[in-house]
Amino acid sequence: MTQDNLTHDDLSAARALADAASAVKTQLGRIIVGQESVIEELLIALFSKGHCLLEGVPGLAKTLMISTLARTLSLDFSRVQFTPDLMPSDITGTEIIQENRDTGTREFRFLKGPLFANIVLADEINRTPPKTQAALLEAMQERQVTVGRIRHRLDNPFFVLATQNPLEQEGTYPLPEAQQDRFMFKVFVRYPGFQDEMEIARRTTGTSSEEITPVLDAAQILQLQDLVRKVPASDHVLRYALAVVRQTRVGEAGIPNHIKESLAWGAGPRAVQNLVLGGKARALLHGRTHVQTEDIKALALPVLRHRLQVNFAAASDGTTTDTVVARLLAETPEKESDLLRDERLKPIFAA
Fold this sequence. Notes:
This protein is of the alpha/beta class. It contains 16 helices and 11 strands.
């Protein structure tokens, strides 16, 4: 497939998206040092109408990165600090009884919670009980919350960014698999390199401050989200994405032996959807109007790492889901002719 699938206006919009993404990165760079891959994955998820789960130790500027992104995009931002005593109504909103001054009667009025924003930061989401974590499910999937019998639509664009701390697991509530699957990416925020950390020390211990200039507004982001869906993906790219994901499914025909030995369960169809959709957004960010296998390969780790579960024996040996995915990518041919000729993959394509 080529850019002939897109209209002239679409091509202009595609160039605008690449320019906008570059401008967003420039603005973020005034506040955030390094973390280029994290920022790119956040933008890909945003333009794909997805959500992100960020994991990293304290002090890596996860909260600052997200709030700065909201300012750069001129979007409403809401931060919720998840705690053990947080209730579902604390984030969705609640109904109160209020007197109507004109009629003198009392009536219910809905007070919106912090979920009614364009970008919602769910800080330390694993520190609140499952009842409150589940309140996010409907909002993330349906873009609405239900209070009583009334459904309240959330504003678009709607982007949930949840953080969790891999340390101090005492008193935490790990996210259930069904909720983790709602997140398009699980992004690891890692320690900065030496030069980046030196720049952080220089910036944050001085008196200088940087101003952020908004680059995009809500209406422009919605247009760009629609554009991502129009980007063509060839059958070869779809076949490659399917080959990677279907090899993770324990018990299916044709999966590698190391998968049988390492995984308790594999990824579902939502993983394929997110790989392809994220690949389309990544292609536009890199100035291309079609998806390549390199886009799928680049996003395989953030898409799959939270959708796989290593078994006890593999975990005891230090095997992680990233280890499994990296090996799958190394073994799966990218070239179309090699992919189709691979005897090991034929049972997977025939299933």
